[in-house]
Amino acid sequence: MTTTLTETETVAPGPVLAPHPTLRDTVDQTLTMAWRAVKKMQRNFEQMFDVTIQPLLFTAMFAYIFGGAVAGDVDSYLPVIIPGLIGQTILTACVATGVQLREDMDKGVFDRFKALPIARIAPLAGPALADMLRYLIATVLTFGVGIAMGYRPDPLGLAAAIVLAVFAGWSIAWIFTWFGTVGRSAQGVQGISLMVMFPLTFLSNAFVPTDTMPGWLRAFADVNPVSHVISAIRDLATAGQLTTDVAWAVLGCAAVVAVFLPLSVRSYARKM
Amino acid sequence: MTVTTSTDLAVAAAGLVKTFGTQRAVDEIDLEVRRGEVFGVLGPNGAGKTTMLKMLATLLPIDGGEASIFGVDVRRQPHMIRQLVGVTGQYASVDENLTGRENLWLFGRLLGLRSARAKATAAELLERFGLTEAADKQISAFSGGMRRRLDLAASLIARPPLIFLDEPTTGLDPRTRGQMWGTIRDLVRDGSTVLLTTQYLDEADQLADRVAVIDRGRKVAEGTPDELKTSVGSSTLQLRMTEPLDTDGAAGVVRRILAEEPVLTPEAGGLNVALTDANQAAEVLIALRQAGLSIVSATVQKPTLDEVFMAITGHGAEEPDPLTVPQMEVPA
Questions:
Q1: Distance between CA atoms of B237 and B256, rounded to whole angstroms?
Q2: What are phi and psi of A2, to 5 degrees?
């Protein structure tokens, strides 16, 4: 502001007003919002079923039902299906991120968040950060069930695979966060999210190798970022190898964030 | 208009406009709120009070006109405005999943207080608003009045110089309402400027130094509560005739006795007469008796918002608007 603006100068009482939130403020506010989201998880434990009971159930179910048919026996199917199920479970958890954000935004407290001098990204980034806990739980549980059933991953690769899975969850969740900020109701967000989530999951290499698919389907399944994430988890956990798929997965996730994070913040800031 | 510089004004708005579809929810409203005063915005449901407040609080984009708060442009500097204004909405904006204490701590942290400082401020405010006992209960267990108080407490964490209260007592029982009024008076004593909206003339009367009356998005009157009340008389005599056909005759009697034009509802045999002095009611009743006109009931009431409205706009506050009703069916 130039000094010639005598009328608007020093009119506000109290401390000097900041024109924008600083980066430090933004980080601080995001962490505070993440704290709120964690409290909410603790107090609504039924919201955690999709990352606790579902992975336990699905892992056992999928391995025993499809194991024989797809891979000959359960043991040789586990290295394929465990990373596949991690991909699927994380996508389901991502959908919940968007739906819960929409539900949350309809509540009175969001009116206050909007009226507070805080960074517009904080109410979105906070829950996104806290939800990494959900992806972590889902990933660890799925690997745990797999190991109990006889899956033997590479220990170091396993750790790397968990990190990648959680990062992928955080990244892909921005797609559904955007739906959450655009949608008019939680049901609407849920509907559209499932419509996007199912093709992303099933039109991938999550459950079966893509070479059994017709050409056009295979073409999609091969470029699907979810396929790359799942391949990367397989390479890391099963073989303990850092392959190009890992690089593609990280790059794909980064691209998703680069597109959908700004979209989400813009649409949230506009909605007021 | 008085000559004031922007520094004397907490809120200065000129020609504010908000359009939803084809409907102008706020239609060229000018507003000047001075520092340290309680300014009331009075109007019925759907008059545009909340919309106006939301625009000033940066919660809705301003479609037309200019607004500044303590000289800071609302449109250009939203982040600064948010530092100057504490907003308490019509519906308690607190987190259902958290306790009262956690809520205040959360908002304190978001406002940049360190954890220990936020904790101390929370305890202080809980004490001040009589919420200490319920402090560690989840909000879902709070009564309506307690929620409102917590909500107001949350707006005060950063000690904003300007506080917006959107219908602070709508839906509260009379006792809680009285407590809320006390709290708002304390705020003003501490030097805050308050902009409040209300549907109740008595609330504006109790709290506001000056009042603007809003109707269908337009400002139709402005003044002190006393000025508004005198525009409709100090009280109203409501009469209901035994024979609806006698209404005209009774109106004639009123004109003769008080030189005042009554408001008639002939189909119900009713007429409302503005009185400058409540004792005039007796004179009217005696004259009616002498004229042989029989009444079913007679009540003397303080003026209501509806009567202020009737006097200013010529239609009742709750009356549906024949022009806007069909427009609402047009998709936005």
A1: 16
A2: -85, 160
Instruction: Output A98 or B328, whichever has higher pLDDT.
Output: A98
Domain B233-302 has CATH 3.30.43.10: no
Contact A115 B85 (CB under 8 A): yes
The pTM (predicted TM-score) of the whole model is: 0.80
> What is the C-alpha separation between A27 and A132, in angstroms, rounded?
16
List CB contacts (< 8 A) between B89 and chain A: 108, 111-112
Q: How many domains does chain A have?
A: 1
Please judge whether A43 and B82 are an interchain contact, meaning their C-beta atoms are less than 8 angstroms apart. no
Q: What is the DSSP string of A183-194?
A: -SSHHHHHHHHH
Which CATH number, 3.30.70.940, 3.40.50.720, 3.40.50.300, 3.40.50.1820, labels domain B6-223?
A: 3.40.50.300
Residue A10 lies in a domain: no
Domain positions in chain B:
6-223, 233-302
Handedness of CA A162, A167, A170, A176 (dihedral sign): negative
Residue A139 has pLDDT above 80, yes or no: yes
Average pLDDT over residues B163-179: 87
Phi, psi of B41, rounded to the nearest 5 degrees: -110, 115
Residue A131 lies in domain? 23-270
pLDDT band at B324 (very low <50, low <70, confident <90, very high): very low
The verdict on A44 touching B (C-beta cutoff 8 Å) is yes
Q: How confident is the model at residue B316 (pLDDT cuts 50, 70, 90)?
A: low
Three-state secondary structure call for residue B301: strand
Crossing angle of helices A122-149/A155-182, nearest 10°? 140
**Residue A176 belongs to some domain of the structure:** yes
What would the pLDDT profile of B25-57 be if each residue is shown by its tens digit? 999 999 999 998 999 999 888 889 999 999 999
In the three-class reduction of DSSP (H, G, I as helix; E, B as strand; rest coil), residue B212 is classed as: strand
